[in-house]
C-alpha cells in the first residue's frame, strides 16, 4: 500500500478506448420508442437530433470504442485527472476506512461533463453541424459544451433551468464567455416553453422542460441545428468511462482495490463513468465491488420511482425509454443540486439496478451540505452540490466502518467543484437551506402520467 496522497498518471496513460457496458451487461435494454407512434425508433428519427456516429455508439454492443485522436488531444488539457487519498478527512472521522476520490473538477469547465462534451462536439463538427442546442441544470453541462463548441467552432444555444439560471449567474457568465447564448427555461421562444408558462407563469423550470425546449429547436430547424444531451443516453455514459478506466490504474498505483465505488446520480453520467469499468471487473474478473448511486430525497428516481416506459422530457417530444421515473411532468423542488433535478435516469443504470447489480440511496439536502462543508474544511475543495451527495454517502460508509471496526476502501467521484455554487453554501451557512421529502401521494400518482405503450413492448 502506497503512502502517497495524490496518484497522477502520465499523459501517455490517457485511455485510448471508451468502455461500453452493454457488451458485458447480463440484462438487455428494452427498445427506445418513438414519442408519437410508440414503436421502436428508427435511425432516421434519431438523425434529426444526432449525428450518425453518435447514433451508432448509442446502439453499439462493442466492448471498446476507440477515442478519436482529436478528442484525446483535447482531453490532454486536463486528463488524466488526479486520484486523491482523503487522509485529512479520514483522520477527522476517526475511521479505519481509506477514502479516495477521483477529482473531475480539474477540467477547464469545472466538472466531468467535458468528457462527453468534447466528444459530442467533435462528432457533430465532423458531420457538418454548424450549431447545437442543449439543456443544462446547474450549468456544468452547459459550461462544458460551451467550451467544446468554442474549440470546434460551432454555435450553441443553452436552455438553462430557470431556478439555476437565477441561483447560479456565474455559470451563465462562463457559458457566455465561451460564446454560447443562454436562455432561462421555460422561455417564450418555444411552443413547449410557452405551454408551461401558460400553466404556471412562475414555473421554476426543470431539466425535463429544458430538454423539451432544446429538442424542439433542433427538431424544427430543418437540419441546421442538432441536439446534444449531457446525461442519460448510452453514448454519453460511454464517453464518461475514461474516469473509471483511469481510476483502475490509479487504485493499482495506490496498492488497493475499492470495496465500494460511489457517485451521485441525476441522469447518471458521472456515476456510470466511474462505476462501469469496475462493474466490468465484477462481471468478467470476479471482483465484488459494491457500486452505490446517490440521489437527492427531493428527486428519488431510483429509490422511489417506478420502472416503466416514460418520456425523456416534459413536452413529450423526446424518445420514450424504460427507466425508473417520477413521471415526465414531475417538477422537482428547487434544491441547489440543479444537475440532479431530473425525473428519470439512464436506462442502462436502471436495468442494472433492477437486476441488483448496483445499489442506490437517497440523501437529504442539509445532510449533504454538512458533508460538503466537512470535506471542504479538511480537503480544501468546495464540492459542487451534486458531487456532495457522493461525499455524504462516502462519509456514511466510513462512519459505518468505524462503528464495525473494519477497514474499508472507499472510492467516490468528485464530479465537479462548487466555486460557482457559493450562494448555495451561503444559504446553508446561514440556516436557510431546507430538506425536501417527496410526498407519498406524488409517488402514487406516477402511473397515471405514464404513456401507454404496445403490450408486446411493455411486457
UniProtKB/TrEMBL annotation:
Pathway this chain belongs to: Amino-acid biosynthesis; L-tryptophan biosynthesis; L-tryptophan from chorismate: step 5/5
Cofactor: pyridoxal 5'-phosphate
Residues modified as N6-(pyridoxal phosphate)lysine: 113
InterPro entries in UniProt: Trp_synth_b-like, Trp_synth_b_CS, Trp_synth_beta, Trp_synth_beta/beta-like, TrpB-like_PALP, TrpB-like_PALP_sf
The Tryptophan synthase beta chain-like PALP domain, residue ranges: 77-416
Reaction(s) catalysed (UniProt annotation): (1S,2R)-1-C-(indol-3-yl)glycerol 3-phosphate + L-serine = D-glyceraldehyde 3-phosphate + L-tryptophan + H2O
Keyword Amino-acid biosynthesis: yes
Enzyme class: lyase
Annotated family: Belongs to the TrpB family.
Its biological purpose: The beta subunit is responsible for the synthesis of L-tryptophan from indole and L-serine.
Subunit record text: Tetramer of two alpha and two beta chains.
Name the UniProt record assigns to this protein: Tryptophan synthase beta chain
Amino acid at each position: 500500500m502506497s503512502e502517497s496522497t495524490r496518484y497522477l498518471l502520465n499523459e501517455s496513460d490517457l485511455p485510448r478506448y471508451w468502455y461500453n457496458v452493454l457488451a458485458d451487461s447480463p440484462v438487455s435494454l428494452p427498445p427506445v420508442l418513438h414519442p408519437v407512434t410508440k414503436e421502436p425508433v428508427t435511425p432516421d428519427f434519431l438523425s434529426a437530433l444526432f449525428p450518425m456516429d453518435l447514433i451508432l455508439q448509442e446502439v453499439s454492443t462493442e466492448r471498446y470504442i476507440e477515442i478519436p485522436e482529436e478528442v484525446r488531444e483535447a482531453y490532454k488539457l486536463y486528463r488524466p485527472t488526479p486520484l486523491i487519498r482523503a487522509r485529512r478527512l479520514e483522520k477527522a472521522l476517526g475511521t479505519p476506512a481509506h477514502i479516495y476520490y477521483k477529482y473531475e473538477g480539474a477540467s477547464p469547465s469545472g466538472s466531468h461533463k467535458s468528457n462527453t462534451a468534447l466528444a459530442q462536439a467533435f462528432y457533430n463538427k465532423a458531420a457538418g453541424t454548424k450549431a447545437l442546442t442543449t439543456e443544462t441544470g446547474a450549468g456544468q453541462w452547459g459550461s462544458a459544451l460551451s467550451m467544446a463548441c468554442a474549440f470546434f467552432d460551432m454555435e450553441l444555444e443553452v436552455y438553462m433551468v430557470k431556478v439555476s439560471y437565477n441561483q447560479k449567474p456565474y455559470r451563465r457568465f462562463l457559458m457566455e464567455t465561451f460564446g454560447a447564448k443562454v436562455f432561462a427555461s421555460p422561455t417564450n421562444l418555444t411552443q413547449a416553453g410557452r405551454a408551461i408558462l401558460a400553466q404556471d407563469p412562475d414555473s421554476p423550470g426543470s431539466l425535463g422542460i429544458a430538454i423539451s425546449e432544446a429538442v424542439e429547436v433542433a427538431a424544427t430547424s430543418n437540419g441546421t441545428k442538432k441536439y446534444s444531451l449531457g446525461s442519460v443516453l448510452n453514448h454519453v455514459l460511454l464517453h464518461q468511462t475514461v474516469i473509471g478506466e483511469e481510476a483502475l490504474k490509479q487504485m493499482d498505483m495506490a496498492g488497493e482495490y475499492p470495496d465500494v465505488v460511489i457517485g451521485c446520480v441525476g441522469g447518471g453520467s458521472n456515476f456510470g463513468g466511474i462505476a462501469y469499468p469496475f462493474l466490468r471487473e465484477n462481471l468478467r474478473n470476479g471482483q465484488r465491488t459494491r457500486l452505490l448511486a446517490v440521489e437527492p430525497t427531493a428527486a428519488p428516481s431510483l429509490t422511489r420511482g417506478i420502472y416503466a416506459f416514460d418520456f425523456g422530457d416534459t413536452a413529450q417530444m423526446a424518445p420514450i425509454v424504460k427507466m425508473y421515473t417520477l413521471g415526465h411532468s414531475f417538477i422537482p423542488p428547487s434544491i441547489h443540486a440543479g444537475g440532479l433535478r431530473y425525473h428519470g435516469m439512464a436506462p442502462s443504470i436502471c436495468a442494472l439496478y433492477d437486476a441488483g447489480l448496483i445499489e442506490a440511496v437517497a440523501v437529504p439536502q442539509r445532510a449533504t451540505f454538512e458533508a460538503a462543508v466537512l470535506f471542504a474544511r479538511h480537503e480544501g475543495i468546495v464540492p459542487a452540490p451534486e458531487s456532495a451527495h457522493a461525499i455524504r454517502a462516502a462519509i456514511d460508509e466510513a462512519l459505518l466502518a468505524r462503528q464495525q471496526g473494519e477497514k474499508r476502501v472507499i472510492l467516490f467521484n468528485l464530479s465537479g467543484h462548487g466555486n460557482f455554487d457559493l450562494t448555495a453554501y451561503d444559504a446553508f451557512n446561514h440556516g436557510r437551506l431546507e430538506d425536501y421529502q417527496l410526498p407519498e401521494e406524488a409517488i402514487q400518482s406516477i402511473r397515471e402520467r405514464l404513456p401507454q405503450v404496445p403490450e408486446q413492448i411493455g411486457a
